[in-house]
Amino acid sequence: MMFIGPYKIGKAIGRGNFAVVRLAKHGIAKIKVAIKIIDKTRIDEENLQKIEREISILKTLDHPNIVKLYEIIRSERYIYIVTEYCGGGELYEYLIERGRVTEVEARRFFSEIVSAIDYLHENGIVHRDLKAENILLDKEKNHIKIIDFGFSNYQTSDSLLNTWCGSPPYAAPELLLGNVYDGKKADVWSLGVLLYILVTAGFPFPGDSVDKLKRAVLSGQVKIPYWVSVECSDLIKKMLVLNPKKRFSVKQVLSHRWMTAPHSARSASVILTKETFSPRTTSRLGNQSPRLDAAIMHYMQQHGKWTADQINEDVLKRDFESDIYATYELLCDKVRVSTNDANANCHEEYTRRGSRGSILSGKANVEDPKPLTISAHQLAQLGLSASPDCDSDDSSNSELYDDSPTGSMRNDRSAKGQIGLAINDQTYRGEQRRHTLCANENLITPEMLAQIPFTSNLHQAIMQQQTISALTRQLQPNAAGPSHAPMPGWYPTAIHGLPAGLSAVSTTDYTRMIPVPNNERRASAGETLLNQTLTPSTIEQLQQLVQQQPNENNDNVEEEGQGYLNKFGGKRNTVHGMSSTMIGPANPVPRHAPYAKQNSGERRSSWASTTATVQQKSNLERLYKQATQAQDPAELLLLPQLQKEFQELLLFNGVASNSNQYVVFGQRPHTVIGFSTSVSGTSTPEQQVRNNGDEKVKSLVSTLSFTHVVDELKNSLNQLQIPFEESNEVVYMEHEMRRLSLPTGVEIGVAVLPPEQKSHIEFAILSSDSPTSELLCDELINRLRIIDPNSVTE
Ligand SMILES: Nc1ncnc2c1ncn2[C@@H]1O[C@H](COP(=O)(O)OP(=O)(O)OP(=O)(O)O)[C@@H](O)[C@H]1O
């Protein structure tokens, strides 16, 4: 079980260009949240600024149809953005599953979307990346939640913007032309596309490239199917007006007759606000100081071990970087949702009661328990258990970890007598959906399913520590190690008593997830951290541990990739953005296919540029599409051309060609690591398999570079104080193989295979051999998985 601060971390529920999003559960409030995890080392300064802007904008927002921010957790390497969890998935998925919706339903959804955008525009904010993938539904799939403020920005009424961003099929003509633009009107254009999609399940403008799309958009023609009502058509046309000055504003959209039709869903919106919207408890209304709910404060003091003063201070400051504030808001939301009684919400309560806060301290008063909004008893009834670690309501934990209908992972593991819950990302929605990143979904095959380590809970960690200590003693009889099992209370200290690096490694539990052959290093990094046993006190220590990996060097990885590109004509299907230009991703080429199941692997990702011309971008997109969809090996020849094109673009933008930014497409070479326990120490793993029919097999195919893997293994062995001999220049299946021979008879072979040669090499571990050798192999495999969650075992 793994924690980030007070959040128990569960399965991955989404990926973006810069982030992996995971489901999590708050330890005290027992509410599910979504945590977007950004690895700062994987993004450039410009994108980091964008994320900071996203955070600062999210902090100001408070609207029922906009995802609610709870907390920001920062570490040296990661930023964790904790928001409310929208369990109904993306509108995009909804449309794929059901096709177009009725106008009544469309009106209900659209009203909520427009209401949120109106709120943003009223507050001088433009979203700039409205698309069906960024519109989520609540658990009941009744209400809209807008997410992804990565491209949002402030816009004063008379200013214009110039950053090319968004997703082409939703981009306004002025954006496609590369002009400066009014972000609000650009949002309205995207709203027009969204309404069109809702009522037709198709895109308004045909085009499988930006060029074609641009032509279609600029033609000024939009064909609306016959089944769309006259009023709805009229509204769509008023939003899809070429001239932004003549295009509707959001206010005009809101008052259009289709929106205000009798029996329209606007009333539903009102109901939404009244019944289910949880305004920030600490929103300041008028001049009144907010007053905190005494029962919740009391509860927090009991269960969070905070003082009343601390709670007062952080909550009233609306300190998003404090777990106190998040806990308070989550508890209020829990109470609201559970009682489903608007009168029970803290917001109304403190408004009604007014404030008698201290003028001197600036702190709000906490009233006597008597007129409590929420009684402690009520809280107890809500299933808020006494112990933050105790999952009294863990019927829902299955969703946190494993949404597979069969729960097969869990069964497998219980068969092995292992402890803990499975994370089964095989059924992770993102798989059926689209990863947000630059992956070519075609390249993701079932064979590429990877296993990544699952973190152990405290008990497991201690057990594991004992096992590993025993292992270390066996392997290194003279090695000093802890002579007794650590008590739980001093667990973090005990970590230091272990051979360096052992503490974070789990040997027992794995989860499956789809490796995404792009940006996976970003996602991996997040998972690297997540797959360790974390407590607030150990997060930084563990991050340091992760960072201590000897080859945590982007440049090396990229250089290796570059070499491979030159050698094999292509590898990862990643477009590495340069500082000023971020060319998107998975399939940035717009299309006019209706949303349909067979197209669900595609995703229109967001991309932005301040300097690249539309022409340059469309060239790159065309080449990118051809290259990544290449069936014929001859088409791989496009890759160098693509590379050249991109280099030119870099030069054009004044980026030095020797910088580390370049296009990398296709797949990385597979680095194969095999573990065998040979008696002679000389036979190849393949021979082991042939020679002994009774052996166990351990193999790992990593997406990391050959040198990275070898260095990592050597580093691990050094940390474990296990001597080894390294033999170079061994050729295995015509490729270089590095061999690490251990005195205990364990042989480790590392070989590079080209992408087309996907066969995994299997390595034998003799069942008769000492279990310590097997444990050691597991340990090394786990360490590799921690730094490369996308590695595959069989
Ligand atoms: N609060 C949430 N609840 C449920 N799922 C979420 C939530 N936030 C994000 N997701 C899922 O994660 C995906 C990626 O999140 P998000 O769009 O915020 O990342 P991003 O890096 O900004 O993406 P993009 O590359 O499209 O800009 C979403 O499309 C969605 O499926």
From TrEMBL:
Described purpose of this protein according to its UniProt entry: Regulates chemoreceptor expression by phosphorylating the hda-4 class II histone deacetylase (HDAC) and inhibiting the gene repression functions of hda-4 and the mef-2 transcription factor, enabling the correct sensing and transduction of food signals. Role in determining body size, the dauer decision and serotonin-mediated egg laying. May modulate the Sma/Mab pathway and regulates development in the later larval stages.
GO CC, alphabetical: cytoplasm; nucleus
Keyword ATP-binding found: yes
UniProt binding sites for ATP: 36
GO biological process annotation, one example: intracellular signal transduction
Keywords recorded for this protein, A-Z: ATP-binding, Cytoplasm, Developmental protein, Kinase, Magnesium, Metal-binding, Nucleotide-binding, Nucleus, Serine/threonine-protein kinase, Transferase
Family: Belongs to the protein kinase superfamily. CAMK Ser/Thr protein kinase family. SNF1 subfamily.
Region of interest (Disordered), residue spans: 385-418
Pfam family, one: Pkinase
Co-factor(s): Mg(2+)
The name this protein goes by in its record: Serine/threonine-protein kinase kin-29
Subunit structure: Interacts with tax-6.
SUPFAM superfamilies in the cross-refs: Protein kinase-like (PK-like)
Subcellular location: Cytoplasm; Nucleus
Species this protein is from: Diploscapter pachys
Catalyzed reactions per annotation: L-threonyl-[protein] + ATP = O-phospho-L-threonyl-[protein] + ADP + H(+); L-seryl-[protein] + ATP = O-phospho-L-seryl-[protein] + ADP + H(+)
Biased composition (Acidic residues): 390-402
